Amino acid sequence: MRQTPNFNGWRATVLHREDATTERLTRQLRLLGLHVETRWQPLEPTELPDIILVDADQGWNDLLPWQGVAAPRPLVALLGSEAPGRIAWALEQGAGAIIAKPMSASAVYPALVMAVSVFEERRDMAERHARLEERIRLRPLVHAAIQKIMGSHQMDEDAAYRLLRNSAMQKRVPMEQIAASFLGGPSLPEVK
Amino acid sequence: MDKAIKIGVLYSTTGPYGPMGREGRDGAEFAIEELRSAQGVAVEPVFVDPEADINRYLEGARYLLREAGCRHIVGTITSLARKEVIPLVEKHDGLLWYMCPFEGFEANENVIYIGATPRQHLLPLFDYLLPRFGNRPYLVGANYVWGWEMNRLARELILQAGGEVLGERYLPLEETAVERLVLDIEMRRPSFILNNLIGPSSYAFLRAIDALGKRDPAFLPENCPVVSCDLTECELDELAPCAGEGQLTAAAYFDSLGSGENLSFKARVARHYGAPRLVSSLFASAYAAVKLCVEAIGEAGSDEPFRVRQMLAQRAHNTVLGPIVIDRETNHAALPFHLGRIRHGHGFDIIQSQPAVAADPYLTGQRTRQPPKLRVVS
Predict the structure, then answer these.
(1) How many CB atoms lie within 10 A of CB B80?
(2) Which CATH class is domain A11-130?
(3) Which domain holds residue B169?
(4) Which residues from A are below 8 Å from B108, CB to CB?
(5) What's the pLDDT at A99?
């Protein structure tokens, strides 16, 4: 880990009935520099904090304002129960780390670091996934462009592909985009 | 209080970090002795020596908390041992008084931290070194969390400063075969060497660097110092036949501090042992920890950790390290920074000092505010 994780100035919401656990948790979060709000009612989707810690022992489905979609914020589950149903609930909400109850002070910082890291990894993967899906969707355009170049330039398929790829690289755009503009416009890729 | 205050003293006086454990034990013992004889406070120490066996720390702590009736334990040197003992101290709602410099990233309600964190040792140390020696260090460390985390942090600081880490090597505490490591350092020619080794490996390393400096002046301390955040007065004898002269250490206390508080402290130490004795930050910090503990218990009228912590956070307490405030949130002491250079004939010359700063154990940057203005004791 190159950079020391720092949560100074972050806003955290603890979704848990106020008790000894929330008291200790709040102390630990504060000394890490976070601003802490504790509540035991559903979160407003318009007012999401930077990180959320939720009671997975008693949490219910509408406590977190996202169902069936990826969690929009890093989430830590506070869990005393070992019941598979409760673990599953935490996973369904998108928890990236667990703090076991009764809580040990030394569990908090590692859980935050892990939840944020898992959240970022998932977000990056989702973005990558979306980009790849888009490219797959546009693949027929590339195929069509290659066919057109083969005809107009009297080239074989490999040479037409290379021409399109070089053109994309020079303009620093994806092949799908160069293929689309080529098919839609009058100009052919420049031959190098 | 009618009953004697029982304090557990949990240090290993043998094994690879025995010299440090002996200092901790002696410092605690001296404080208790002084409280008894000079102030008439009844304090009963209960000594446990785990002899550097990690399993025996847990047994020892269990004995102290459960059978011996100690609610307060001064002890542990390594982070490994501290982490081992903490769950038990939490369970019994006791307080562990930890006084070693360490790698930070911990703030437990049931621990009072008198030892310096990287904000208090490594950061000011690098502020001093980088403009003077350059930003291309070589990092060596003990093969456990202290060495790993200190070097990780050092690397982060060096990259932030636009520098480069020329090498990073780890040795077990008792490994004294340092030839290959020193050869690598000789080849790479760093600006300085950060030494996070512990015990015999550290002493062997310093001896080998001393020999290297004699062969190649580029490795004399004035050109490429070996700097550490944990080498203290109590280990200088272990470096023989070399003296480590000129090498640097950061600490919250040195024997050579010129404050009135320290001169009087050293005179009392000399009287107690029948001869002058070089006092290390470990001795002084264990002494300060016991004094703080007993003082806070007295003021609180209870040995209950919650009440004791309240007393500690309420005001600055005069100690041999200077006035100490314990942060209410982190339980860490604000500590001064001193940079010592090993001098001819043992001990350290203090070449730079900075006033106490808060520990900021998680390096959030928010706790760098100066503690409340304190009376300077000197």
Answers:
(1) 14
(2) alpha beta
(3) 122-228
(4) 105-106
(5) 98
